[in-house]
WRKY domain-containing protein (Panicum virgatum), 287 residues
Amino acid sequence: MKHHNSRHLPQSSPSDHPSFASDHGSAMKEIARGQSLVTQLRAIVLPALQADQRCELVAQMFQNILDCSSKAITELQLQHQSDDDALVDDKKRVRRISSDDCTKEEGATANPRHQHKRRRSDDLVSLETPVPHYDGRQWRKYGQKHINKAKHPRSYYRCTYSKEQGCKATKTVQQQDESTGTDNPVMYTVVYHGQHTCKDNNGVDSGTDESETNTQSSSDRRSSISITSTDPCDHQISLGDNKLIGKSADLVTKSLYEPLNMNPFAPLDLDCWELDALLRFQLEPDN
DNA sequence: CTCATTTGACCTCC
DNA sequence: GGAGGTCAAATGAG
């Protein structure tokens, strides 16, 4: 594996399919860019609002913004997929099918522990962020590895609900080597693998296929902000990190596509809740 | 006691 | 064979 900073999409790259690139690529790119910027903004705002009771409201509004753009991206992806089905002679795809179905499956069934395979590069998404843990998801660390020629170790996380709900989403977090200067904020390369098929603590279905009515009351909702790290190299922005927060506002993400909230059919039943909360806070602006 | 993290071993892929 | 990814026992925190 070489470098995670290149842009990735869960499906094959738009650049592989000129028709798609011309029809949908720029639109998806712009939507995804907006999504990524919103995610970055959320990562900056939410830590600063931790002690504020509006935190939950703000978090939910961010979530809804991301849901909207996710829907748009998914629509474009679905259109693209129908075109993509015809293009099955992709070399990587052929290689993946042959190695997965034939060569390795026998060994995997013979010994369950031999199931872990090196990840494929076609379902990963990378981004650079100063706040690798405030991504709206809950993660459990399952490994850490020193990477060759890297100053900092790479941490491996999987979805907290991987066992309970079989969610296969994982991510790796690695501090960038060049972010050691005093003026530059510490930056991390976060690489997401797979998509969430679980429901997070908000009761929001984060999978791609399930659509289930969310009847959970607002009082039952809990924040699902990921605060998972105890890793000494994985710094988090705290309320006191104002310098970092200020500088982070200028950061431009390099991700094309934010996988965290790629739930195209998540029920957006929060409008009433939002309006109610907004009215409440307008009446009580300093609470 | 429970659960998350750490860490060395082991695995697959290149 | 080296590098990257995952497992699982050990460890520690709450």
